[in-house]
Write a structure and sequence with these properties.
This protein has a five-stranded mixed β-barrel with strand order 1-2-3-5-4. It has one domain (22-82): Copper binding periplasmic protein CusF (OB fold (Dihydrolipoamide Acetyltransferase, E2P), Beta Barrel). A hairpin with a 4-residue loop joins strand 1 and strand 2. It is built from one helix and five strands; from the N terminus they run H-E-E-E-E-E. It has 84 residues and is of the alpha+beta class. The radius of gyration is 17 Å and the shape is elongated.
Length: 84
């Protein structure tokens, strides 16, 4: 019985972690708000940049590629790359 409980707990943990996988988005930056660490892309998508992720090269008009996770209904970027 203990083995089954352990197996069920392990599967629950796997499915919980699997839901937190990062997604990617790419687009041209329309607005940068350093005060709340957010970026709005030309398509209207708003992404908040996580603390510790540099955003000093992110400027209006640049194209960025960001990996993000959904947290409390917000897209939180875990990495931001300025495209050349």
């Amino acid at each position: 019985m203990k083995k089954w409980i352990g197996l069920v707990m392990a599967l629950a943990l796997i499915f919980t972690v699997a839901g937190a996988w990062a997604e990617e988005i790419q687009g041209k930056v329309r607005t940068v708000n350093p005060a709340d660490r957010s970026i709005i892309l030309e398509d209207g998508t708003q992404v908040w940049v996580a603390e510790g992720v540099p955003m000093d090269n992110v400027k209006e008009g640049t194209t960025v590629k960001a990996s993000y996770e959904e947290r409390d209904g917000k897209k939180i970027a875990t990495s931001v790359q300025v495209m050349q």
